[in-house]
Amino acid sequence: MTDSNLDRSAAQKPFRRLLLTGAAGNLGKQLRGALAAWADVVRVSDIAPLGEVSEHEEASVVDLADAAAVHALLEGVDAVVHLGGISVEAPFEDLLEANIRGLYNLYSAAQKQGVKRVIYASSNHAVGFHPVTSVVDTDAPLRPDTLYGVTKCFGESLSRYYFDRFGLETVCLRIGSSFEQPRNPRMLVTYLSYRDFIELVRCSLFTNRVGHAIIYGVSDNRISWVDNKKAAFLGFRPQDSSAQFEHLFPASAPHTQFDDPTQRFQGGPFVLAGPMEPKR
Amino acid sequence: MTDSNLDRSAAQKPFRRLLLTGAAGNLGKQLRGALAAWADVVRVSDIAPLGEVSEHEEASVVDLADAAAVHALLEGVDAVVHLGGISVEAPFEDLLEANIRGLYNLYSAAQKQGVKRVIYASSNHAVGFHPVTSVVDTDAPLRPDTLYGVTKCFGESLSRYYFDRFGLETVCLRIGSSFEQPRNPRMLVTYLSYRDFIELVRCSLFTNRVGHAIIYGVSDNRISWVDNKKAAFLGFRPQDSSAQFEHLFPASAPHTQFDDPTQRFQGGPFVLAGPMEPKR
Amino acid sequence: MTDSNLDRSAAQKPFRRLLLTGAAGNLGKQLRGALAAWADVVRVSDIAPLGEVSEHEEASVVDLADAAAVHALLEGVDAVVHLGGISVEAPFEDLLEANIRGLYNLYSAAQKQGVKRVIYASSNHAVGFHPVTSVVDTDAPLRPDTLYGVTKCFGESLSRYYFDRFGLETVCLRIGSSFEQPRNPRMLVTYLSYRDFIELVRCSLFTNRVGHAIIYGVSDNRISWVDNKKAAFLGFRPQDSSAQFEHLFPASAPHTQFDDPTQRFQGGPFVLAGPMEPKR
Amino acid sequence: MTDSNLDRSAAQKPFRRLLLTGAAGNLGKQLRGALAAWADVVRVSDIAPLGEVSEHEEASVVDLADAAAVHALLEGVDAVVHLGGISVEAPFEDLLEANIRGLYNLYSAAQKQGVKRVIYASSNHAVGFHPVTSVVDTDAPLRPDTLYGVTKCFGESLSRYYFDRFGLETVCLRIGSSFEQPRNPRMLVTYLSYRDFIELVRCSLFTNRVGHAIIYGVSDNRISWVDNKKAAFLGFRPQDSSAQFEHLFPASAPHTQFDDPTQRFQGGPFVLAGPMEPKR
Amino acid sequence: MTDSNLDRSAAQKPFRRLLLTGAAGNLGKQLRGALAAWADVVRVSDIAPLGEVSEHEEASVVDLADAAAVHALLEGVDAVVHLGGISVEAPFEDLLEANIRGLYNLYSAAQKQGVKRVIYASSNHAVGFHPVTSVVDTDAPLRPDTLYGVTKCFGESLSRYYFDRFGLETVCLRIGSSFEQPRNPRMLVTYLSYRDFIELVRCSLFTNRVGHAIIYGVSDNRISWVDNKKAAFLGFRPQDSSAQFEHLFPASAPHTQFDDPTQRFQGGPFVLAGPMEPKR
Amino acid sequence: MTDSNLDRSAAQKPFRRLLLTGAAGNLGKQLRGALAAWADVVRVSDIAPLGEVSEHEEASVVDLADAAAVHALLEGVDAVVHLGGISVEAPFEDLLEANIRGLYNLYSAAQKQGVKRVIYASSNHAVGFHPVTSVVDTDAPLRPDTLYGVTKCFGESLSRYYFDRFGLETVCLRIGSSFEQPRNPRMLVTYLSYRDFIELVRCSLFTNRVGHAIIYGVSDNRISWVDNKKAAFLGFRPQDSSAQFEHLFPASAPHTQFDDPTQRFQGGPFVLAGPMEPKR
């Protein structure tokens, strides 16, 4: 459309409208501000309240399991950053609604609405049953460590299908531990600073072609269990490292319970977290 | 139990009780007889009527989406051959109930009931978006060609989780086209004779350790798109070939529509089959 | 065209017109008869006289270095079996005309005339500098053993380009030693029976999609230096073996000149054959 | 020779005589000065005028297609930096003379004159038909994106042959875009600064053994389509990056024509540049 | 030497003198007769008595730990089949003498005496700690399952050194279970018939160049844990299979002790056999 | 033990007792001070005199070939840094005692005394027969360049066995050239600064799980023949580089004796050093 292109050029922003799901969550909050610089309109969505809404924002409280609502949510959207859904282990029923049915609704709507690209928050828990004495690249066999991790594998397969079938592009971000700072020794390895997280989303949105890509979301930490070399075309170069936090967890002799699965596998405590019984 | 071991020894059959789901389907019917030789009791199950029930059989009409029924179904079972669920493209809602919720019910029950092994009917449609000019092995990246294929990827991830978490073993059979004979030229490549199918299940049940294994279910056809070398520990050596049926599809010059996706990808017509709209 | 399709159906042959270059050579003679069964018209071509011409044949003596003649030669052709050019080491000038300029003429004409597929006689001498103590697959790095081998590498690159650029398909046959019988111990390894050669061409012509494929042309000999597993989609299953000729070369203790390059590399005597001085 | 060794020691320069072909071109001009520090005599050559000739230089206007002239050119040379020939898409006839016949002349002469090493300007267009969503290493299959790229593949094969056959070493530099600064967004990925180019040549000349090596010539840009890890023995560590030029090409939403081949493949606009018709 | 060549020609046997160590053992006895056909003189050796000595044989009782005796033993020998040493788990002291010091003596003597090739009885116990749910090829990481297996790894490294340093060729045979017939279910997988064993030695002796090769010694059994594709240049095609013995071990449900290491690893009972205490 | 844990907490040091063998050698001296910060007690051992003993140290002159002495040496030890044994080419008899029998004594004692981890000084000479034009990762095939290198291969196999059999962890450090500064051009590639060496040991001791790991001990030098990517879980990030010493070895034209094995292989002069004759 010549008209809207004219407007956009005046606005100096590359995207007309970006959708951010899970906008009320920890990472959603980090990203909400950054997106303002990249799009004329930022549509924010969550199942939880979204707080104060800026002038450039459109806010929408939506349950991802509600197909009609999700189709409306995707209307007029150029690209989606999908952080919505459940991001920890939970009873299967809950995961099924949020991460399986909800994700299908999102992709079905995105395809029908002509959305070009989804940035999908997958997780390192899709491969958490690889041992801590190995380094996995983005082609490593899936080894989910929870039912939550299984739903992330589902998301990677579903998005692959929408790319192969319709050309709808996705970047799957296998995010590690993105908090202010690592909370335990394991997070020294999986730490992703907020700054690096935002840069990772930026690379995923602006790289001209991404196809269906998988990339680990970790900062440039000293110890690494992952290898992003096959995703170098995305241009993600982390600027931070957990090294500054190593003093918080003084060196100790290696843990003495050799067979403790929470120490043996990359997923850490997640490997024993599931399956959870349904809530009454 | 000493008593039951005594009984089994007298019965001369290696398994006490095998469960066959999807027993009323095309392949279920082929297998039903064969299982009698391997187990004292064969529990057969389907959502459809199961026909005449033999003396050594226990029949049970069950909807896999009914968790309580599935838990009852798994009681006292040594191993499962799981052919149940939907095996073609279908509306997502239907696939969700049968192939996702249903499969979770099956594994959840199997783990709680102490079942040792599941033979899971996955499908070559989990990798159907690989081109026909490539050969995929059992570690090839997942490329589902339908939503149905996506649910088969889900099943492979879920069963991997139950193995890594609980040691519950699974063999995923990526079955090609198992009919009396190939029905079109593509099936010359994907053909699995009934005899080879039964042998594949036999290998999967009797190999002493299988861990979490993936294997393609195809006969020794002239043209092959798959490579089972990493599954050689299962000992599956197909005896049949589609060569005897090649005369049914006389040689023709290569298809002239070069970009036709049903000709370019291993999934054939499946690659355009989905997603299907929900039935009203 | 409806008309010609009608005609072809009456003729019961899958191709309307096949072109065979190098038809007067050793392998061309083997193939000339076989092609009659696959095409209504077989256009045969060589720089040398073509002998008696059958009713279904069109004969044309052409120098491949003559662009205009080659463009005329390709007119109305469905597919080409290109055995033409020089198939042994020769002065660079000669190779340049026949195997480089000539091949460019062929592909340029084929693309412009709408030809769908070329079966290209490459050679195991494109990889002849791999040691005899290794096994190379169809992705192995190129290691030409002669300037002749270098021109075969050129042909593989040129045909790759025409496929990536225009979708013109090619099967590169890295033919070993195709004679009545092996002439020395090395040929026990590289032997390709005439029957297997014809079958290899048949597979290459009739497989529905081949993209740009590379395959070694060897029979099922006891010792093998090559591995065709990545070309299994072509369905070539050799029926013959050099085993029946092993008695011609009685076992002897290994050759005592350890560093003799003609014994160390797969190319055998070729590795010392070039470069040849131009003829006066 | 004891005498000349004495001389060279006095001169404090590691090489006695280096030959630079293509010395009048863009990169040739960059390199001409640098070579002075490394050799007593720098022989510069081009088909175009060579400008002012320094005291330590020997200038020679030569057409590479002229075998006798090339043989004379190589006399007394220790090593060659071969930038000569055509470096963009051109009619096949022209490429044949400059990049095929010319290159053969160069290697034939180098071998006969006892030259020890050639630094050969190959190109990333030898692999330009790999998609921009992949990362290629130095063993990746050849995928030329032009007839020009096909001639670079020829050069890599020819030089491999001369190494395997005669021990004449070559480093193939798959040079990206070496200009003052990137001229379009694609060149942010393929940019090679002049300083890094000179360092790349220095590493290639001075590494004690190089065998037949292939290395990508790119600076340490943020986005990368290539991986030089197998060439780490050459010690090339780029000092520059295109990051300083990213502001020249403001971020925009991804290009909307999804199937545009110039956006899908690493070769960019080259993938549609050829084949070119001969000039009249 | 012209003279001896003349003699050998008259004798019609390819080798002048072969040495067989371990000739009094199980496999040595199988091979002793076969070697007569391949060499004018067969020198047989063991630490145990060698029984009746044929006319074409030279018998020598030698302790491999005796360097001088071993040097004498190798004199005038063309090639060695080295079955000597300890072939089961044993106290380290014993293994050190027979399999480490003894093997060094053998290679040191072979090199000094100009022997061209050694056929070395390595063992699948060099890789016995790979799981039974994997397939290992000849490049798989070493995973010895006993101190005995560690000494076989030593032998593979030592022989590699003698090849790289002196060009002394070795074929390492990773022999499975070579008996009249399998003695337990595991041996159905590792079975090597005597006929196939002799053929394996024949291939290893007569292949013109072997370099330093590793190959698994197993028949064409239904279940396989190993992959010899990289050793296809040796031409070993087993003729036998353990399938004829499967009836000896009737099918049973998989073993119920999931974590039993003797069931989980390819080495079977060997994985718990060591280390053994020294004998008093 | 609650008591000793109390004590250790007071002492603020992560290990109670570390053993350093080879403490009187070049690298042992570097490490001796560093260990004081990590353990309450540092037990130092060598076959040579150990000099002044600090308050926190226990000194013990021990011949590793003396089994009883080694068993006593390992008593009460948490972890071992094993630098002992011979670290250059030597007569086989000497290597056998120090590096084979001695190492077995160490592991046998460590396992019996309940030691949890060994840091084992392996060597790049375990892979020294790889060419200088290749880059080896930690899974590269073993290519020892000396009998010394063969004993390092033995150590890597033996320690693998103790890990697979008993869970005794080992990090194999393939140390390059660790001196004050490089002594020749080759050492510019293999240089490991003392500071980086100490950091490498620190990483190996303190990483929570190491399993059986292999890592190259080199600083971040410009030229690299090795690749530690599969050992990234150890977190070793070298801080130093040999670049500061490059001026000591002025650039020269490549060495002119092309076939000189000391120039062709990574092991440098070691490749011709052995085997050495026994000392009288």
Automatic annotation (TrEMBL), chains A, B, C, D, E, F:
<dbReference type="InterPro" id="IPR001509">
    <property type="entry name" value="Epimerase_deHydtase"/>
</dbReference>
<keyword id="KW-0560">Oxidoreductase</keyword>
<keyword id="KW-0520">NAD</keyword>
<dbReference type="Pfam" id="PF01370">
    <property type="entry name" value="Epimerase"/>
</dbReference>
<protein>
    <submittedName>
        <fullName>Uronate dehydrogenase</fullName>
        <ecNumber>1.1.1.203</ecNumber>
    </submittedName>
</protein>
<feature type="domain" description="NAD-dependent epimerase/dehydratase">
    <location>
        <begin position="19"/>
        <end position="177"/>
    </location>
</feature>
<comment type="similarity">
    <text>Belongs to the NAD(P)-dependent epimerase/dehydratase family.</text>
</comment>
<dbReference type="GO" id="GO:0050388">
    <property type="term" value="F:uronate dehydrogenase activity"/>
</dbReference>
<dbReference type="InterPro" id="IPR036291">
    <property type="entry name" value="NAD(P)-bd_dom_sf"/>
</dbReference>
